[in-house]
Write a structure and sequence with these properties.
GIY-YIG endonuclease; 88 residues; alpha+beta; three-stranded antiparallel β-sheet
């Protein structure tokens, strides 16, 4: 059985103030992709992005469930989370 990979739930703030969240196993690579215009269609036109939140997750399933919960939050609740959390 393969060892569990560490996944990261992350949120970036785009140049226009929009918030984008995602999951990855390599956060540095993913941020480089976003800022190079290869990360996602949503962030491509809103560069540069900067990391404002990250959380380590054990396993892909856990990361995806937490991402879904984060995406269900209102903008106001996301901003509140950012004010009370260590963002990195």
């Amino acid at each position: 059985m393969a060892a569990s990979r560490v996944w990261h739930l992350y949120m970036v703030r785009c140049a226009d103030g929009a918030l984008y969240s995602g999951v990855t196993t390599d956060l540095d690579r993913r941020l480089r992709e976003h800022n190079a215009g290869r990360g996602s269609a949503c962030t491509r036109a809103r560069r540069p992005v900067r990391l404002v939140y990250r959380k380590r997750c054990v396993g892909r399933g856990s990361a995806l469930r937490q991402e879904a919960g984060l995406k269900r939050l209102s903008r106001r609740k996301k901003e509140g989370l950012l004010r009370t959390s260590w963002a990195g």
